[in-house]
Amino acid sequence: MRIHCPHCGPRGHDEFVHHGDAVPQRPQTDATDAAFHDYVYLRDNPAGLYRELWFHAAGCHSWLIVERDTRTHEIRSVTFARGDA
Amino acid sequence: MRYSAFRLFTEALRGNRGWQPAWRDAAPRPAYEAVIVGGGGHGLATAYYLAKVHGLRDIAVLEKGWIGGGNIGRNTTIIRSNYLLPGNTPFYEWSLKLWEGLEQEINYNAMVSQRGVLNLHHNDAQRDANVRRGNAMRLQGVDAELLDAQDVRRMLPFLDFDNARFPIRGGLLQPRGGTVRHDAVAWGYARAADRLGVDIIQNCEVTGFRIQGGAVTGVETTRGPIAARKVGLACAGHSSRVAALAGLKLPIESHVLQAFVTEGLKPLIPGVITFGAGHFYISQSDKGGLVFGGDIDGYNSYAQRGNLATVEDVCEGGMALMPMIGRARLLRSWGGVMDMSMDGSPIIDHTPVEGLYLNAGWCYGGFKATPGSGWCFAHLLARDEPHPVAAAYRLDRFAAGRVIDEKGQGPHPNRH
Amino acid sequence: MSARLPSGGLIDRTRRLRFSFDGRRHEGFAGDTLAAALLADGVRLVGRSFKYHRPRGVLTAGPEEPNALVELRSGARREPNTRATVVELYDGLEAQSQNRWPSLRFDLLALNGLFSPLLGAGFYYKTFMWPAAFWEKVYEPLIRRAAGLGSLSTAPDPDHYEKATAFCDLLVVGSGPAGLMAALVAARSGARVILAEQDCLFGGRCLSERIVLGDGSAHRWVQSVVAELAATPGVRLLPRTTVVGTYDHGAYTAVERVNDHVAAPPPFEPRQRLWRIVAKRAVLAAGALERPLVFGDNDLPGVMLASAVSTYINRYAVRPGERAVLYADNDHAWATVADLRAAGAEIVAIVDPRPDARARAAVVARDAPLLTGVVRRALGGRTLQGVEVVGADGHVHRLDCDLLAMSGGWAPTLHLTSHLGAKPRWDAERSMFLPEQLPPGLLVAGAAGGELTTAAALSTGIRIAEGSLQSLGIAPRGVTPPVAGEEADAWTPLWRAPSSRGKRFIDFQNDVTTDDLELAHREGFGASEHAKRYTTLGMATDQGKTSALNGLATLAALTGKSIGEVGTTTYRPPYTPVAIGALAGHHRGPDFRPTRLTPSHEWAREQGAVFIESGAWLRAQYFPRAGETDWLPPVIREVQAVRSAVGLCDVSTLGKIELKGPDALRFIERLYANGWQTLAVGRARYGVMLREDGRVMDDGTVARLGEQHWFMTTTTANAVAVYQHMQHCHQVLWPELDVQFTSVTEQWAQFAVAGPRSRELLRRILASGEDISNDAFPYMAARAVTLADGLRGRLFRLSFSGELAYEIAVPARHGDAIIRRLAAAGEDLGVVPYGLEALGVMRIEKGHVAGNELTGRTSAQQLGLGRMLSTQKDYIGARLARLPALDDPADTQLVGVRPVDGKTRLVSGAHFLPLAAPTTFEHEQGYMTSVAYSPSLGHWIALGLLKNGRQRHGERLRAVDLLRSQETEVEICDPVFIDPQGARLRG
């Protein structure tokens, strides 16, 4: 795969470390145990479009949100996880 | 039709025209006592043991494509029970025991070959972990031997002992580990289950579940609805997708694991060797191909194919371990979609939907578990209680904090 | 008897090359393949098949060859299963036949053929089961010995392999008419082009067929195009390069055989090079493969593909037979008749199953008999002597011949289009599989796309390249193709194999016959995926290139379905088998992984250090002195020196991360489980970090160097993971925090200076103004310091050993100088270097946890760190760390362990069992994690994890090591063995 890092440009996927689902949000401190369980352990694991986190370990050290189809590996978009472009 | 050398001989005399189909290509009936979703090794084994051990006969196995087309036919064929943690060892040992009697039981030669599984270590911490693991195995009646570097050299003189980045300092050997002809396992169970009346229904994809009052009453399929009192899911790789049809979310991600085979070679490697300093394990099939594999590709995928970086990583491990294989040629590679669970261990349990049972999360270790998984899943389906050796494989273990994390990687499926 | 023609071919007759096959000497010419040279010398029997050990000859002239496999070269360079049809001849070449005993001509295992009714598809699944123990002892060893093909050397591969990465606008795969046109269009348009050709020569079919292009031979046209390409900037020509894999997003893998055409690679040159090509667009112009026809004993040496016959005549000037029969279901193969005639062979007959071809074929046949019918069986012992033909009228003709050129039409080489999972579509009208869904960026031209004529190949090559360039925004420059002559291409495929007494082979190498497929169908394995696995069809080293289509056709006939309904098997990389060495490249031996060296490595080497791998690092394990032959004496000496005087240890491998910013404190609070609010500037503190699941991730120290300036260390093993985790926390979870941090592991050399005389030693190297008295610089103090020479560094009063100790950090480039200065300055104080072993001993004596306890499975509570878990704040892992399971007395807890007899050596990995209970797992209580000989106590000690261990100090247990048959009575104690009050480290 080739991932277009918004900072470094297109690079081979082996420069990046895959982290997993970008959708679950860390619950607030006062959330229930169940909310933390769901955040840490449960995954939609879709066959199709997937928002996922990658870390550009051998590049700029940015955390990226990649929208990718898990059936075809087609990448729709890559953005910085921290928000700013 | 019983298989034997005598039968081969008499059929050969008659021009091999008398052989019967190994299993009936059954059409779905409107209702069954139990339906198993997934005609892979685990599903077929479950159906067989349900019929054989628990006396259920009204069973259907539903397979989306052709039986045995999933991970049972896409693995590196290794069997072993050399696990560290108490939740795992008894289960895998029970599975290994079932392997040991499997061929006579199902009258099918799956070439269960116990030529040994060796896990190498390259530093003191790995040795300590191997010692702890080996002792845990021995305490549970599992065979394990600790080898030092000289023992390994005597056994496998072709490994790189003198020029290695990470010198081999010994290994943990399980002599009863080995390999099995993987496709034959699916076919053998299918044939044996069929003989006990199980309907094996191919090209029948489950598209939904019928649930009434929190209990399952049947499944929707591409070949029409099928009613069932109990439904067991055994579709690892796609567990999340199928479970989602019943409204369930699982602690599982789907990842690709690649496997590789070389051109056929005269015998070189006696048993299974696992490198401790890289992601590489290897054995040689009876046909002569070196069968090897490594780490998963590292990202969620349903694409049943691998990436080049992992191929290179695996081959680097191979060359570092045994530099004789440089001129052996990689013939085929293939990728299978794995259920990677959050702690690297499987799930055999009830689900919140009554009558719906889950057999999932096998990561890349499902092949060796096939008989044990079938046995324990059948036990759960038939008796509604977990089998003692699989009692730790609960779905609620994550919420309880009682994970079974052999690698100590935490809730990161791609690191297990 | 020489079959070499007196003239012609693309061989260099001025360069004679000697070679041997099975020890017999032969000669060929430069430009020959091994197969061509063997055929030229009249050698027809070159191999044996896998199962029945049938005699086999050369079937093809390319990489699809299933039969002519040899062991090439000798010694450590022996290459089994090498296809003679692609081996370029070189002087001194050695080749051996394989999979036969005792010799190729008399192979005893050919007896298997007599038992073939017993050895049909899947026979082994039905027998060899009794008695069970016989499988590993009797049956399997016999099967394993008989199976396999060639044998690999067990010596390390002596050759080198390298990898290269290339980027281009257009990758062209194949250099026949279509590929050359595509490359030329792109080259003239100024695009970056890579042209990869598996052969040593460019030209594809132009090399093997007599084609006229424009006003000259196709070969001359090829030379002019290649010359232009070679002269165009931005064009990379890669001959001897096979593109073997398609990967996501325009990535392709290719293998360049840099030095396979010579006896051994020249010094400093690789044998092969693996190319990772990233192409914006790609054109697959890989041509097509000719299909064999199925009839009885169609595997006899002398039965050849028609295109191969033409290739041996036209390219290699070899006449593969004297009396030839052509058996083809298409007009294209008639060119072979002309080639044979030109080579002086007698055309015995043309056999064609198509009644409608009779009139057209008569022109080609001239005076040779033209038989409308099918070949039923080939006749002969070890080589072909004749064929039996069944005419349309049912008459059986027997024809004497020594060569049968067969052609069942062409199958496009579309493997690369299918590597991403798309299955090709059966085009019933054109009788071929064609790609339906193409990988993004890849298009197909020429015969690979089903365009079988030269004219169509030329025009599609141009059209596809133009389209590809336009999609990239590159304006294509016009290329006019040369005029190609008319080519006969009518084809009515013959799928059905006539019944015959002989074996009708579909997969030649694996000996899969129509009978096997019939049996598979009878037994319910008729689906193509089942049939393939049950019969091993297509699993041989040719990967089904010559067998897949005939297999599907046979299954279609058996099941009454069309070929399209039977399906296709999925093509997977690699397209042709690839040497594992090429995929590994330089990563072997000491270069398997990079080696990280500590700043004091050179100095440690001079001190005689024994080094040990620690992750990617090499660290000093211990420093033996003269007379210390084992590891324990130096370790004892080093520990004693630290406990009584002073020692030096390089701890630069710890992960080091520098943090700054107004929110740095808030960030650290959320990162670590313990609190930091009260940490004053100039002080350091031990910290524990959890994962979100509540288990311990890592530990280390954090020093506050300024109000908003922090410096933390991680364990060596987790340095990368912790840094990545911190970036995750900052960028993903809390981007609003104003903090910046970076890893400075490589930037600082850091040395532990430990022991009661450490302060004295440090004073000697620090600037005179630096006050490091206990009052000015107490335990856990941290601050910037100036060394005597003005160098700026950092000093931390940290102690892993439990002694008065410091860690001094200087910029990494000064590390070597500073360690030497410390050693020199401390000579009279008795300073010694100490290694990882002594470090480990002292941490066990102090009960500090390390890698053997921080397994990723342990909780802080288990490790006795539970009181550190803050309840006052949110941090990673805070919530799930509170689950009862993580602090369950039924689970294990950290304890100290000592042998009751005060003598016995303890072993890590031994499990605890009660003194009286039986040695079974139900009674297992935990295990020992880390052991050491404590010079301070004079006996072995250990840390362990024991169920409810904190409540069991003083209890006696057995430590059982079944693997080494050792059992020791041990007493459980507090994990801190030395100075539990910490008086020494505060002194």
Question: Could you give a short description of this structure?
Answer:
The complex is a heterotrimer of chains A (about 80), B (about 425) and C (about 1000). Chain B has about 425 residues and is α/β, with parallel strands linked by helices. Chain B has helices at about 5-15, 40-50, 90-105, 125-140, 150-155, 180-195, 240-245, 310-320, 365-385, 395-400; strands spanning about 30-35, 60, 80, 115-120, 145-150, 170-175, 180, 200, 205-210, 215-220, 225-235, 250-265, 270-275, 280-285, 290-300, 330-340, 345-350, 355-360.
Describe the model.
The complex is a heterotrimer of chains A (85), B (416) and C (987). With 85 residues, chain A is mainly β. Chain A contains one helix and six strands, in the order E-E-E-H-E-E-E. Chain A starts with a strand and ends in a 5-residue tail after the last strand. Chain A has one domain: Folate-binding superfamily (Folate-binding fold). Chain B has 416 residues and is an alpha/beta fold. Chain C folds into six domains: 112 residues, Roll (Ubiquitin-like (UB roll)), CATH 3.10.20.440; 188 residues, FAD/NAD(P)-binding domain; 117 residues, FAD/NAD(P)-binding domain, CATH 3.50.50.60; 154 residues, Gyrase A, domain 2 (2-Layer Sandwich), CATH 3.30.1360; 89 residues, Aminomethyltransferase beta-barrel domains (Alpha-Beta Plaits, 2-Layer Sandwich), CATH 3.30.70; 98 residues, Aminomethyltransferase beta-barrel domains (Elongation Factor Tu (Ef-tu), domain 3), CATH 2.40.30.110. Chain C contains 22 helices and 50 strands. Chain C is elongated. Classes of the chains: A mainly beta (85), B alpha/beta (416), C alpha+beta (987). Chains in contact: A-B, A-C, B-C. The interface between B and C is large, with 119 and 119 residues.
